[in-house]
Amino acid sequence: MVISDEEYIAESRDPTPEPTPEFIDGGGESPTRGILKNGKSKAPEKKKHLEGEVIIEERVPDMQLGKCRYVRLHDNVNYVAAGIILRGEGSDTEVLLIQEAKKTCYGKWYMPAGRVEAGETLENAVKREVREESGYECDVIELLSLEVQGSGGELKTKPNQESLGAQWWPVDEVLGKKLPLRVKDFLPLLEQGIAYREAQHITDIPRILPLNINIPGLFIEFMIVRHSLDESRIEVLVHKSITDEQMLTEHDQPFPTVEFGFEYFFAMVVSKVYRHLLEEGGNVVFAPSHVVRIKCHPNPMQSLAHGLSVRLYCQHKKSASKAVIRSPRYHWIPVESKSIREQMYMEKSQYRPSLRMV
């Protein structure tokens, strides 16, 4: 049986997670939805408030694939925070690796990494893992997956359950796999860390770090950018309510947004959203290549207002004519101001954390 996109994607549905039984039985209110006496819930009101100069508008997503009823840390989702720590320049560049103490990979080398604990921010998780496994204190300076920079402490030499110790290794030896590695999945992150350090010498790079904000579900924002053949013109797909480029910086959610549930594979979400937005779907837009914003605050397990919101950079193919939009709620607008393009991470010269769909 062939199922159309419309059966998978419903527009403007209520994204708020259902209240848990304890809220219903207790007669109280969840953080996101009130409970009426007859047992039915009332939909949340659309709210607006100012955060600096940005208008934060709490609205339902444009599209919905399934529904994520709740997101709970260590229950149905885990975050793994890891640090790429470099020192030296050029051929003398070294990376900090830790020697594993786990039975399954005892004695092998890997980057400092571990699960985010309940109530812990992503940045604090990186700091803790680096401290426990290597002995160093660090500061989080940029999102690769997460990149960290050492800021104190001493190299760990005494083994414990976290690791056998830590050591600086020349990056050429690590990339050349001249030592026994736990797994090789962190090598692309190491290459990206090196690329980021090199880019720092070329341009002033605004940092992309996770925003510690409670999100009631799982959401993706699609920032679809189109460059003209001669690179002189840039356009982006936005809501019809966004009428000029200045509004991109004034509104928190100018781009098409989808909510999805755990039953949907990430790549499937991307494919279906592309087909929903554009007549030719993935034929005219490359797969999302970079992350330009993350909202996430890993609250304790019992929290209802916990999830993840990720804004992805999606490049329109130059070889294709401008994509025809399927839905009347979106349109293309030009972005002529370089300052605004930099604020939105549209400039190709800017460093942007890459997206790896594993």
Automatic annotation (TrEMBL):
Cell membrane in keyword set: no
Region feature (Disordered): 1-43
Stated name of the protein: Nudix hydrolase domain-containing protein
Keyword annotations from UniProtKB, A to Z: Hydrolase
Record-stated family: Belongs to the Nudix hydrolase family.
A GO MF term: 8-oxo-GDP phosphatase activity
Domain of life: Eukaryota
SUPFAM superfamilies, sorted: Nudix
Nudix hydrolase domain mapped to chain residues: 77-192
